[in-house]
Automatic annotation (TrEMBL):
<dbReference type="InterPro" id="IPR036388">
    <property type="entry name" value="WH-like_DNA-bd_sf"/>
</dbReference>
<dbReference type="InterPro" id="IPR008920">
    <property type="entry name" value="TF_FadR/GntR_C"/>
</dbReference>
<dbReference type="Pfam" id="PF07729">
    <property type="entry name" value="FCD"/>
</dbReference>
<protein>
    <submittedName>
        <fullName>GntR family transcriptional regulator</fullName>
    </submittedName>
</protein>
<keyword id="KW-0805">Transcription regulation</keyword>
<feature type="domain" description="HTH gntR-type">
    <location>
        <begin position="1"/>
        <end position="53"/>
    </location>
</feature>
<dbReference type="GO" id="GO:0003700">
    <property type="term" value="F:DNA-binding transcription factor activity"/>
</dbReference>
<dbReference type="GO" id="GO:0003677">
    <property type="term" value="F:DNA binding"/>
</dbReference>
<dbReference type="InterPro" id="IPR036390">
    <property type="entry name" value="WH_DNA-bd_sf"/>
</dbReference>
<dbReference type="InterPro" id="IPR011711">
    <property type="entry name" value="GntR_C"/>
</dbReference>
<dbReference type="Pfam" id="PF00392">
    <property type="entry name" value="GntR"/>
</dbReference>
<keyword id="KW-0804">Transcription</keyword>
<keyword id="KW-0238">DNA-binding</keyword>
<dbReference type="InterPro" id="IPR000524">
    <property type="entry name" value="Tscrpt_reg_HTH_GntR"/>
</dbReference>
Length: 198
């Protein structure tokens, strides 16, 4: 999803295992999973090759995430307690601190924690599970290393928290939609600048 491996790139089991410091078995299993997800294909006697990723593929993935997230947001407005909203506020403060510290791993963890709290509070376990699995396609380093993303995200989260406190369903859903629109635009811009579609 980041364009690091270009379409047509062959992935060698032994080289990848050595780079990651693991045996060939987990690499093979990961490639089988990626094959099932349409990210790589197996070419007989040649190995696994990266499948092209189109703008439409990215748009479709984010559309699915946004659709599930909108449904969860609509439920959250009805179910979140004051204590849960306070927890979201604290999680956003931790995210802001991670951004100030400039630690990509801490930023990724804090952003994940914020959305996990939000999604789990809805009580819609299966829908949250589906969103989690679709969200695996989001390459976090694209966002956490973007200097404007962090500030914008903390600000959007604060607006979301304010809307939750007011019980403003329309604003909550709109903020969630806007987050996904921003995410897809940032990823497409990065992939275009990387030259992946040239």
């Amino acid at each position: 999803m980041t364009g690091t491996l270009r379409p047509g790139t062959f992935i060698r089991l032994d080289e990848t295992a050595a780079q990651l410091g693991v045996s060939i078995t987990p690499v093979r299993e990961a490639l089988l999973t990626l094959r099932g997800e349409g990210m790589v294909q197996l070419e007989p006697r040649r190995g696994y090759v990266v499948v092209p990723l189109t703008r439409q593929d990215i748009t479709d993935i984010f559309w699915l995430q946004a659709t599930i997230a909108r449904e969860l947001a609509a439920t959250a407005i009805e179910r979140l307690t004051t204590e849960q909203i306070d927890e979201l506020d604290e999680a956003n403060t931790r995210l802001a601190q991670a951004i100030a510290d400039g630690d990509p791993a801490a930023i990724t963890a804090a952003e994940f924690a914020f959305h996990r709290l939000f999604n789990r509070s809805t009580g819609r376990v299966k829908l949250s599970w589906f969103l989690l699995h679709v969200a695996r396609y989001m390459p976090p380093l694209v966002y956490v290393t973007d200097p404007t993303w962090g500030h914008d995200t903390v600000h959007n989260h604060q607006q979301l928290i304010t809307a939750l406190r007011r019980g403003d369903r329309d604003t909550v859903v709109q903020i969630i939609e806007d987050e996904f629109a921003d995410a897809v635009n940032r990823l497409v811009e990065q992939l275009e600048s990387s030259g992946i579609w040239r």
